[in-house]
Amino acid sequence: MANIIGALATSHIPAIGGAIAKGLEQDSYWKPFFDGFGPARQWLNREKPDVAVVFYNDHGLNFFLDKMPTFAVGAAEEYRNEDEGWGIPTLPPFPGIPELSWGIINHLVEREFDIVTCQEMLVDHAFTLPFKLFWPNGDAPLAVPVCINTVQFPLPSAKRCVALGRAVGEAVAAWDSDKTVVMIGSGGLSHQLDGQRAGFINKPFDLKFMQSMVDDPEWAAQFSVLELVEKTGTQGVELLNWLAARSAVPGGVRKVHSNYHIPISNTAAGMMALEAA
Amino acid sequence: MSASHEIFGTTPFDGTVAMRGYAINKMCFSFNSAQNREKFRGDEEAYMRAYGLNENQAEAIRKRDVLGLLDAGGNVYYLAKFAGILGLDVQDLGAAQTGMTKDAFKARLVAQNQQPSTM
Q: What ipTM, to 2 d.p.?
């Protein structure tokens, strides 16, 4: 049976891609953000997971409003990154693992999640940046993308994202393989890009949410999506991806490391590495 | 969205807004392609006509009016691609929407560190 080693979570601000490309990691603006990844990288270097299941939201690269799935699972040999329109460098393709993708898809549908399946799927910065941040040397695991709609309302509820994550975790645990798997949640934390409330950040909520990822993983599921928008901003609601990733790890976790830094761009940037207990 | 959840300065991008803004968002989605960005730069009016923008939407594009673009149904993830053409980042957008200078907007973000650590 495959072994789930834990969960990673990080913000995915596009400017991170620019900073990496320009080698600005130790620049005073960026250092407090990038330095947070050191202990997580050491842990990953020891554990060397074979596969990463990435919960993220597409920002208008693969999906447009003509067809907007609530949940979509990638089932491709590779996932291509492309120009998103504002100039961060395009990255080489990310290899997939269709065998596990279909295992997850089959189990999700059996558990009555009516997902969209994608044999071709472009992946944007929300998917690519966690790989650049956690595996800066490029020795990254194979990927299964799981895309959650956080663009067009109605969004799936936090409770539903917990259930989705749990079902993905069941599918991975049931996979007849000796491979190791890490879950990744990409997005957040509190930020709002649009409207007169642009620049909204909620530090006490973010810190409470991060603590709940360790010791009370369903805490955030008590809130409706609109309550989450109110507490975290219109884009802070991307924390749904963290929640799904955490829920995909069965049982308790031990915190390897976490970091929280205000601001990167307009965002309260968070990262966590959690080891399955 | 239900009145019990009116949030200041925030319009959830729901079905009503997504229908209103379909043309403008579709145009901005096309800006993923460098060739399309070039075409737009070459003749903005013709490009907007090709995507069927209504007058409100076209006027907001002409004026680079961020709140007007949102009001016309634009979604910020797609509008960011338009902002990219103009060489603007999300802090420029934040400043424009809050009536602040960019420096003041950035300073306000940094000042969020002073929020308490516990709820």
A: 0.95
